[in-house]
C-alpha cells in the first residue's frame, strides 16, 4: 500500500506534511516527500489525514470487557471481592475468547496495534489475538496459592509454561509471552524469586502491578521491613531482567532511581487510577528520572473503555493540572509515550515509529472533522482534539485490520452477540446478585 500526500508523525515525533509512505510485506519500506518510483500496490489518498504509529496499550486485561460497567462506585476491596472475583470465577473458555475479541475490536477501532495483557487464563485470549491480527505481549497474572506450593507446581506457572511452548513468537512474532507476577500482595517471596530466575533464564519481560494503591504500597513496607514494593522486587532479583510495571502511583524517589537503573518501564493508567480512587502517578517525576513511561487503559471494568486517545488526553491534562504548569507533558511527549515507549516496554524495538525498516504498525486519523478544524497544530489536534471515532485505518504488520468503520479480520456482530451471551451465562452461574448498598446510604 502507498499512502499518498499524507501528513506523517515522523521518527522524531515531528510533523511532516505531504509525504509518501510505502508499505511492503510487514514493513514500512518507503518514506519521502517525493513520489516513489516503485509500485506499492493500492494507493491511499491522505488529504486531511495524519499517519502515526499505532497505539500500544501497555496495560490491559482485555477479557474484562465482559465486566464493563458491572461494578461501579465501590472501593477497591469491595469492588474486587463482591463483584470482580465472583464474576471471574465463573468465566469459561469460550467466554474468554469473546471477551478478548470484544476488547480487540474496540482497540482496533481506536487505532491500537499492540497491547500488553495480564490475565489468569490466556489460551483463548491468544487465539483471539492470533485470529484478529493485532499484536500482544501476553502474561499470566501469577498469584501464590494458600497454602503455598513449590514454584513449578503452581497451576498458574504451569499455564504460563504451556503458553511459552505454544504461543511465544507465534504469528510472525505478533504474540510474545511475558513472565508475570500479579502483584506484591498476591505473591509469596518464593514465587517472586522463582519468577525472577525464570525471567533471567528466558530473557523475558516481567509484567507486574506495582504500587497501585496507598494500601498496597504502605502494606508492603509494613510486611517487608520498610521496603517498598520496588525495593522488595529488586531484592528478589526481579530487576536483573527487564520489568514492566503497571501503575506506579505511589513510587518514591528511590524507587524511580531503581527502575531507571534497571531499564524498567512503567505503564501509566490514568483513567483506571482515577476511577478506583487510587490516585495519580507522578509522570513528570518518572520522566525526569529517565524511566520509560508508556500508557495503558487497564481493564474495562475500571475505565470503562480501551481508548488510548482519551487516555493520552487525560495523561497530559492531569500532569499539567496537578503541577500547575501548562508546559508539562506536551502532545509530542504524550504521543511518544502512547506509541514508541509502549513498543519499547514490550521489547519490540522495531515497532512504534514511522520509519523505513520498521514494522508497519500504524493508524490514520481523519482531521477533516468539525471538532478538529481548523488545524493550527497537528500534534495538539491529535492529543487534545481527536476522538476514537476519527480513526479511519488501523494496520498491523502491514495488514489492514480496520478501515472506515469496517473490520477486515473479525465479525463485529457475532463478537458482540457472543460477548453478550457470555456475560449472561456468567451472571446465571453466579446466581442472584448480592445487594450492594448505594453510596448515599
Ligand atoms: Zn491491571
TrEMBL record:
Is Metal-binding included in the keywords of this UniProt record?
yes
Query: Pfam families given for it?
Result: Amidohydro_1 (PF01979)
The Amidohydrolase-related domain extends over 50-400
List the coiled-coil residues: none
One example of the protein's molecular function in GO is: metal ion binding
- Could you list this entry's UniProt keywords, alphabetically sorted: Hydrolase, Metal-binding, Zinc
What is the name of this protein? Answer: Amidohydrolase
Which taxonomic lineage is given here? Answer: Bacteria, Bacillati, Bacillota, Clostridia, Eubacteriales
